[in-house]
Structure formats: C-alpha cells, structure tokens
Description:
By secondary structure, this protein is of the alpha+beta class. The chain has eight helices and 13 strands. The strands form two sheets. It has a seven-stranded mixed β-sheet. A six-stranded mixed β-sheet has the order 9-8-13-12-11-10. A hairpin with a 5-residue loop joins strand 5 and strand 6. Helix 4 crosses helix 8.
Amino acid sequence: MSSTPDLSPVLRSYFDAINSERYGDVAELFSDDGELAAPGTPPRRGMAEITDYYRAALAPYPEHEDVPTRLLTCGRTATVEIHFSGALASGVGIEFDALDVFDFDEQARIVRLTSWYDSHDVRTRLRAARGARSVAPLIPGGAEPRGASSGDGASGPPNPEATVHAFLGALDAKRYDEVVGLFTDQADLRAPGIPPLLGREELEGYFRTAMRPYDASHTEATRIIVAGSTVTVEVRFVGTLSSGAPLAFDGVDVFDLDDQGSIVSMSSWYDSHDVRARLRTALQPSAAQP
C-alpha cells in the first residue's frame, strides 16, 4: 500500500527557492524524470531544462514574489492558487494570478507540475510595462488568502464528480439554462480575458459568447481531483468551428461547491495566448477542411 507524504514542506521549499532565485534548488525538488509544463514553452524535463526555464521566465523581474493564496491537497496531488507580483528594471510593476498543479511521488518529489495563467493578458501587460515610464501596478490588489483544504478524509458535497460531468455535458450541448442552473444565484467566475463575473445572468452571457464559434464540441474531464468542497478538473477541449476547422487544447477548471453540490465559484485556466492565435488561424476560410 502506497503512503501519502506530507506535501507542505516541499511546497514551502519550492516557493522559498523561487522567491530567492535559487533555481537549481527548485529543480532538485523534481524527480529525475520530472516534467514541467507551462504556457508558451514545450514541456521541460530534467534538472538543467527546469533550471533554465525558471531563470528565463523570471529574468525580466529584478524583484518578484510568488505568494500561495490557497492550497488544495488530495493524496499526492496539490493544487495551489498563487498571486505573482514583480517589478521590471524600470520599476514598473506587474501582478497576476496563477494556478499550479503538482503531482508527487512517494518521496514527495515533484513528478509533474503544470502551471497556468492568462498568458495573453500577461504578455500584453508585460509589453505595456516595458514601455511605461513610471511605477504603476498593472493589476490592482491581489488575491485574498483562502486557506487550505484536503481531500484525505475530508467531508464535502455529495457526488462532486456528477456536478462536473453535468456541467461539461450541458456546456457541450449548449444547454445554457442547465449550465447556469448548476450554479448558485450569486456564483462568481474567473476566466482569461474577462473581469470577474457574478450571478447567473453574467455567467450565461459568458458561456454563450465563449461557445459561439463552435458548431460542436466535446470536453473530456481527463482527471478529477476532489479536495473537500473544491474540485480541480483537468480537461481536454475539442471543438469544431463553423468553418469546419478543428481546435483542441488543454485546461484546468476549479470548482467550489456548497453542501448541496451547487457551484458557488469557478475559475478556468488555459494558455490563452496560444488559443487566441490558433483560433484566429482556424477561423480563416483556408483553414476549413475539404
């Protein structure tokens, strides 16, 4: 029977090492064949590649800090919500939220880490910040810490997996009344490219707009990770545009549920820069299949 290691010490070491720019120490927290996946770059494996990734990704920021705002654990998997704040050499500040999903082995070494953030927005803000002349945070404030949750023996809503499958099925079928019916009246939603949304009416408008380019779609939950009343869902989206061109990408959805299994909060994460670029290409008439 495999054991479940205590993940807190290695997660503290991970963020301490990143914030102090000890990138070799970060890489040593990975297993020998550990993998890192992040927006805008191919997967990195091995100590040298992982060290080089962190050094390059954080090179623009002489000052930077990753602050974990919520930790969710289930067995040997941890989902961490993060608020990043940094300053360029010019002194101009950049802040944004991110999500990391860690998988560990029995020795609490990282075997896989996927990192998610609104890559299109961050690239846009970074370009704007490099051209600015004064210190000005690009995103006001930061995420409030929301505590920690564990799925190991913790109570939660009844059958959260059923809520997830009902949501994905209704969304693919464009049954938007069913989609928003899974949410509470004052549920909130965060997703790339939009301000936070509140309430069923705003959520329905968002889902209709997001799905409008697709004549058909299938969203597969490739992994469902339950930590108390919070569910992290790794998804594979495959859509067919009105031009007939296909578009597929991976992402992560995080659902917070109440005691009845209704969704009170949702955040959606994917490589928005890559998806936007491929969507523009796919919508061109020449991209349609014969």
